[in-house]
């Protein structure tokens, strides 16, 4: 009798653990970091994934605003508590990958994703050794936005995909003028930023120059050729006066107020521009080819990455989200909202209907043909900041030191960062 009672009690305990039906749900919490929430990733995609996988796992979404999320992510990676999936800029993801914090996604991509169905940017998170530390959230291309009304007012032809650097400068001259007769320009041909994304990197690439070499070990900034390209900004601003008297950064108020004919900006600004001036008559074009025929389409592939200290189940769910995000259904949603850039799946962008701006397909194709990321490599976050600050100083109306000295100091500091980071990677 005691043996029978023991068997009954054991069966009851097993029943209590497994539940009273086959529709059991795991109590495991899986943390997914959606930096910026629906401002970056369409809520339809997030909700759809949770609806599908939330029956099996307790999915916890961290949608903290971008800057705050990065701070939390730094702490989480250091303490081993980062979310299994996280979204962050490509430079951060590259640094995290080099430091050993991310899962190498190449084996998973090879197993589960047909890369031929996507634009080449899908593999932009690949490092020099073939590891893939992240996959793009969207193709956030840098391009030239142009105000069609201002072009029409002066009878200037719109930019075309085969335009050159000289074409751009000539158009900018024709579109810069003093309307009220006070001796100062009221309208400007172009606005060009001072940061890496929409500033010094596209300009250098147009002249066939790279800030660091292909091995990510040598800085290439203190040369006469680089000085010539950095001087272009000063010429445009102070001599030709075809640029506004200050860098408007990511706000571009003179653009949507119709004071600047062309501005260099990333695709993620389309929503900002449309929200601030829904009736602005504009389109977009790729950055023109430089004197040597070098044409680039810089893009900022904010990346989905998987944290390698998360448990295996959480990593598996994180990868399921990435596959869900790259599905045709989700990519169509991305195309509809255009949050953070353009979709990556070819069948989706090829079938896009009417868009604003109209030339979105042309830019996507430009990425696939001549796309260039932000030269992410060891120490990117640090050396990029060094160059950003140096360039802003170089092109200011009151540089803190002689221009040649700014370049020499920048070269030295970037090389120091590369040496230290590569030494750590070799250990």
Report a brief summary of the structure.
By secondary structure, this protein is an alpha/beta fold. The protein has helices at 2-18, 43-53, 66-79, 90-98, 106-112, 148-154, 165-174, 196-206, 224-240, 253-256, 270-276, 312-325, 328-337, 346-350, 360-370, 380-394, 403-426; strands spanning 29-33, 58-62, 85-88, 135-136, 140-147, 188-191, 260-266, 282-285, 297-300, 303-306, 371-372. It folds into two domains: 27-138 and 301-352, 3-Layer(aba) Sandwich (D-Maltodextrin-Binding Protein, domain 2); 140-300 and 376-426, 3-Layer(aba) Sandwich (D-Maltodextrin-Binding Protein, domain 2), CATH 3.40.190.10.
Keywords, separated by commas or semicolons:
alpha/beta, disordered N terminus, globular, 427 residues, 5-stranded mixed beta sheet, D-Maltodextrin-Binding Protein, domain 2, 2 domains
What would you note in describing this structure?
- By secondary structure, the chain is α/β, with parallel strands linked by helices.
- The chain folds into two domains: 27-138 and 301-352, Periplasmic binding protein-like II (D-Maltodextrin-Binding Protein, domain 2, 3-Layer(aba) Sandwich); 140-300 and 376-426, 3-Layer(aba) Sandwich (D-Maltodextrin-Binding Protein, domain 2).
- It has helices at residues 2-18, 43-53, 66-79, 90-98, 106-112, 148-154, 165-174, 196-206, 224-240, 253-256, 270-276, 312-325, 328-337, 346-350, 360-370, 380-394, 403-426; strands spanning 29-33, 58-62, 85-88, 135-136, 140-147, 188-191, 260-266, 282-285, 297-300, 303-306, 371-372.
- Strands 5, 6, 7, 8, 9 and 11 form a six-stranded mixed beta sheet that branches. It has a five-stranded mixed beta sheet with strand order 2-1-3-10-4.
- Helix 16 (380-394) packs antiparallel against helix 17.
- It is globular, with a radius of gyration of 25 Å.
- The chain starts with a helix and ends with a helix.
């Amino acid at each position: 009798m005691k043996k029978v009672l023991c068997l009954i009690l054991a069966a009851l305990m097993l029943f209590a653990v497994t539940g009273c039906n086959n529709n059991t749900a795991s109590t495991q919490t899986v943390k997914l970091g959606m930096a910026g929430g629906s401002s970056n990733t369409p809520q339809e995609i997030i909700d759809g994934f949770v609806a599908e996988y939330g029956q099996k796992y307790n999915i916890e979404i961290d949608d903290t605003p971008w800057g705050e999320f990065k701070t939390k992510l730094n702490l989480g990676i250091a303490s081993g508590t980062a979310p299994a999936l996280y979204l962050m800029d490509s430079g951060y993801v590259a640094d995290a990958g080099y430091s050993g914090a991310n899962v190498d996604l190449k084996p998973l991509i090879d197993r589960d994703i047909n890369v031929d169905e996507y634009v080449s940017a899908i593999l932009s998170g690949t490092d020099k050794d073939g590891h893939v530390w992240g996959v793009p959230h969207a193709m956030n291309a840098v391009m030239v936005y142009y105000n069609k009304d201002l072009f029409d007012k002066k009878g200037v032809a719109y930019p075309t995909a085969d335009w050159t650097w000289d074409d751009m400068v000539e158009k900018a001259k024709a579109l810069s003028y003093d309307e009220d007769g006070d001796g100062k320009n009221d309208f400007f041909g172009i606005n060009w930023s001072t940061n890496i994304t929409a500033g010094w990197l596209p300009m250098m690439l147009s002249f066939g120059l790279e800030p660091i070499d292909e091995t990510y070990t040598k800085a290439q900034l203190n040369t006469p050729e680089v000085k010539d390209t950095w001087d272009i900004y000063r010429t445009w601003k102070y001599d030709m006066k075809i640029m506004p008297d200050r860098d408007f950064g990511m706000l571009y108020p003179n653009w949507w107020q119709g004071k600047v004919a062309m501005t260099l900006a990333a695709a993620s600004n389309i929503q900002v521009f449309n929200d601030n001036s829904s009736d602005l008559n504009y389109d977009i074009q790729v950055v023109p080819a430089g004197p040597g025929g070098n044409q680039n389409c810089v893009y900022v592939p904010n990346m989905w990455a998987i944290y390698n200290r998360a448990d295996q189940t959480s990593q598996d769910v994180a990868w399921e989200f990435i596959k869900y995000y790259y599905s045709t259904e989700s990519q169509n949603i991305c195309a509809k909202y255009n949050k953070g850039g353009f979709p990556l799946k070819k069948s989706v962008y090829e079938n896009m209907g009417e868009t604003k701006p109209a030339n979105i397909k042309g830019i996507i194709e430009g990425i696939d043909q001549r796309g260039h990321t932000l030269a992410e490599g060891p120490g990117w976050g640090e050396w990029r900041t060094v160059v950003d600050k140096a360039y802003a100083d170089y092109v200011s109306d009151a540089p803190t030191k002689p221009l040649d000295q700014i370049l020499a100091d920048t070269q030295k500091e970037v090389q120091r960062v590369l040496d230290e980071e590569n030494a750590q990677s070799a250990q």
